[in-house]
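Protocol step 6 of 9: fold each sequence in the batch and record its structure tokens directly after the sequence line. For illustration, a two-sequence batch is reproduced in full.

Sequence one:
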Amino acid sequence: MIFDFFTSTFGTILEMFKNGGIITYIIAIIGIYGLITSLEKIHYLRKISKASTPQIINTVNDAMERGGSLEALKSIGHYQNPVSRIISEALKIGYRNKAEVEDAMERVFIVEMSEMTKGLSMLRTIIEIAPLLGLIGTVIGIWYTFKAMGIGGNSSGMAEGIYIALITTIAGLAVAITLLPLYSYITGLIEKEMDKIELAKKMTNWGYATMRLMVDTDIPCAVEALRDSDGIVNVKEINEPESNIWVAFKPSMLEKSINNIILEKCNASAEIVESKLKQ
């Protein structure tokens, strides 16, 4: 019985396509394209939203305790979503100055936003244009019906012609009704992801940071240069196998990267051995 129902329904749809003309096929093609685009977009958005922002931040904090910023960068590399990429740029403070990090985060945001919304305007256009195409098909069909019947036509012929003309309207409405809930669901997923990104930006507004450096020459000059720089809270010379300077700074006030401060004032190169950030 169920098989007969589906067979009958499929036969009816085929008949409607045959009678609806070229506009019905156009509506079907754009409808299928819209459906495929919607499903691909939903799959992509659901994939990138599997990991929550607190989960990623907890991973960062745990990795920061083990090995600092570089370890944190490695630990969130497998997430591969907009939030992790934004946080990855925020972890580079100290290697870059505040403005450079903010610019990099903004670039990542623009790229990720473009990826999330790609195809969305086309989907919206399909939803809006499909009923209009159906209406055009109906008007054309009715016009041809009256033209063919002439003044002396019978009412049954007119009814049949109108039935055929209305097929395009049915097809257009079916496409719009199918795609509109998917479009709303997609925009909802994008809004949730945007909220995650905003939360990530707030949670990576580091208030305090420490670094261990290895400066190749003129260590006293490097210490003095760092002390005179904006954002630096404390600097001291240390005697460790892999580092010889320890520095504490406020990331929000860092106008130059640590490397650039030492290079510009002392003409010496510095290797960042460890960087730890705290909120």
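Sequence two, same batch, same settings:
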Amino acid sequence: MKKKTVAVFMAAAMALGMVSAVSVQAGVEDKTLVVGFDAEYPPYGYMDENGEYTGFDLELAQAVCDLEGWELEKKPINWDSKDMELNSGSIDCIWNGFTMNGREDDYTFSEPYVDNSQVIVVSETSGIEKLTDLAGKTVGVQAASAALDLLQSEEEGGQKELADTFGALNEFADYNTAFTELQAGALDALAIDIGVAKYQLNSRGEGFKILDETLNTEQYAIGFKKGNDELCDIVNADLQKLADDGTVAELADKYEIADMVTLKASDDAAADDTAEEAAETTDTAEEK
């Protein structure tokens, strides 16, 4: 009787295992990709004039979902709550100008797709020309950002020594608020990603400048929960497809970050494009 009970139990367990496996597979094939992003971080993620969330990262995420037949759910998050959102499962990834440097052991990262620099933005009339001019000044930074980590880091490449010369280092939930404070004169400078800085300067017009000296250089990648290699591998493969078909370059031009995007077409795709262009040139010549 005991043997029969064990056999029945094992059969049931195997059946449950098969159901579980099917469920996992279905979850990959019929998925809603929930992307966590900072809704005030243009040009990577922000709300446009029509009240729609858009940006380079969100359009790229949509292109991945289109390839996979997934639905994209854009979930704005408080940046300083990103780890809680990811670890609780309320988002599948952090995709929004997310710096991977120094965080490699905390997440499963995609291949880097943007080279970024941390820079300082000041008023054109501030008289601040170099980093040493920030001594005694009030500097703003986004809470839980890579710029803040950098200014608090004593490790090689860190800028805590520089930050210790500031009169104050004020944290803000988003850079729109920080720029308003800079414009009002409540701040002397902002530590910020160069892509976001350029967007803000272009949209706000004259009155600000980026210092020539950078704080640091880094790379952006998509952050998945540690160990979620399956989803990361799928997205990585799709990003390469989108680089090969020109989608990445098109979006980079649209959002004016082509000089920063590192995700390029593979050698085979580039060779195919060259061959196609040559064929088109030959056909045109024959027609003439």
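Proceed to step 7 once all outputs are recorded. Observation for sequence two: DSSP finds ten helices and 14 strands in the chain.
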